[in-house]
Amino acid sequence: MPTYLITGDDARLISARLSDLVDELVGDADRSSVYESFDLSEAQSDDRAAALATAVNAAQTQSLFADFKVVVVRNVDVTPLNVEPLVAFLRTPSEQCHLIVTAGGRIPKALNDALKKAGTANFETTPPSKRRELVEWYKAKFIEAGLKIDAVALEEVVDWLGQDSARLPGLLDVLASTYGQKQRLSYEDVSPFLGQAGHVQPWDLTDAVDAGDTATALFMLRRMLRSGEFHPFQIMSLLQNHYTKALRLDGSGASDPAQAMALIGSRSDYQGRKYLELSRALGPKKMFDAVQLLARSDRALRGGTGLENEVVLEIMIARLSRLQPVRPKRAKGARPTSRR
After folding, report:
1. Are 224 and 312 members of one domain?
2. 37 in helix, strand or coil?
3. Quick one: CA dihedral 110, 115, 116, 122, positive or negative?
């Protein structure tokens, strides 16, 4: 029988995917007679060898009441861990056992190679970081759940949850139980269930500032601050780094993304093009104004004015975004998004 590997950097997403897979494999069988689970992270370092040996033995032992078993070995990335018993099992896996292993970090090379040779089905739960790919990732999750959603509603879900995609399985369950699988979900259907906003990527803020979109920039700033994910000085550092890259290109003579990449220390053609365009759009005068705004705001955050940190950053963001000409508005009904 096949083996399965579930990986990712969020334990909640790994757990959600594992639950779905176990339910699928167990089916209508009596779970207590066909399912066993072992978590290597719960064993002390001295006891992990014994815990893994027990898990492998379970995978090799046929169920007394069914013609198959489902054995889960969680957190095979823990260290120290001698993975040889599991590697040996994968060389000649049991024909009666569905083996599922999970990892939230780097898997030992010997085990990773053995999993590949065994033809293991791999489920990666970490969502992509690029905006377009992230939207497609969310769309695929809705399809897997049997739900239909229109484009505006999908953009709203992506904007609101951001990278906090571990909240998505719960949202899908609620939407399915509320509306069923026949109705195409609209923004009005989805928005009451979104709750607190999820993570924001740093470029969601800088892209809005660069676009001259003050309202979206302030919205992203408040989400970053109020979620607790970013300290005010982290946001200040983010913006200082952002404008420092553009400043390096001002008067440098760089004329194409490749030259810009070399000057800003990036390997990304996209980054080179982006900062070259920003430097040209600002010019020397507005670049100087941006640096002055950052310097004054930095002093204010350190107690120079007595204003609250959020107010200081709001003033700074509003003024920085107004250095740029406002780009054309999106079509009516479209949700604000960042492109990556």
Report:
1. yes
2. strand
3. negative
